[in-house]
Specification:
Strand content of chain B: over 45%
Number of strands of chain A: 11
Number of helices of chain A: 0
Shape of chain B: globular
Radius of gyration of chain A: 13 Å
Number of strands of chain B: 11
Order of helices and strands of chain A: EEEEEEEEEEE
Structural class of chain A: mainly beta
Helix content of chain A: under 10%
Radius of gyration of chain B: 14 Å
Structural class of chain B: mainly beta
Helix content of chain B: under 10%
Oligomer: heterodimer
Number of helices of chain B: 0
Order of helices and strands of chain B: EEEEEEEEEEE
Largest interface: A-B, 30 and 26 residues
Largest sheet of chain B: 6 strands, mixed
Amino acid sequence: DSGVTQTPKHLITATGQRVTLRCSPRSGDLSVYWYQQSLDQGLQFLIQYYNGEERAKGNILERFSAQQFPDLHSELNLSSLELGDSALYFCASSSLLGRFNEQFFGPGTRLTVL
Amino acid sequence: GEDVEQSLFLSVREGDSSVINCTYTDSSSTYLYWYKQEPGAGLQLLTYIFSNMDMKQDQRLTVLLNKKDKHLSLRIADTQTGDSAIYFCAESPYGGSQGNLIFGKGTKLSVKP
């Protein structure tokens, strides 16, 4: 158990809908990362928050947004869902900024868009 | 742009050594990582190497880094069936405040008894 929790574990929804994925980082970790894992694209970095502030952005679509709350949990919002958004979404947390960055991954949320 | 490449599949017999190879693109990456993903689970950091090192050994794991060729390898000695998983190579190309990782697509290691 990494100490990172993600809910829900599975989510099935329809095209055009909006969903929210939730992540609670390890106790004391200030940094939260979101990654998308799909068969064709592999594991892609989406976005990073550090202590409530957006720190880095990767291949995140405009239909997607995230935030980190004062209690450090984070939510990833996916809207106008398309079939191609079906994927595993991982949250990771770390305590540090900087070059050495051990990230602890949650178990993921599997999103299926029908 | 950044790209990390690794072969997709590797099959070995129990007791043999496994070698998983990876090439990365960003020479400024200070740390390079190997993560392991077991079925239905998230990724777990297996080991890492600092870019000024050529080799790092950790029990059955040996990491070799050829910085000139931007080539990283992970050797698992005496591979066991429990080592069956997907292994991801990753680099952290941005120093300072950005710690996101760039991952390869993963090598699926199958260990036959």
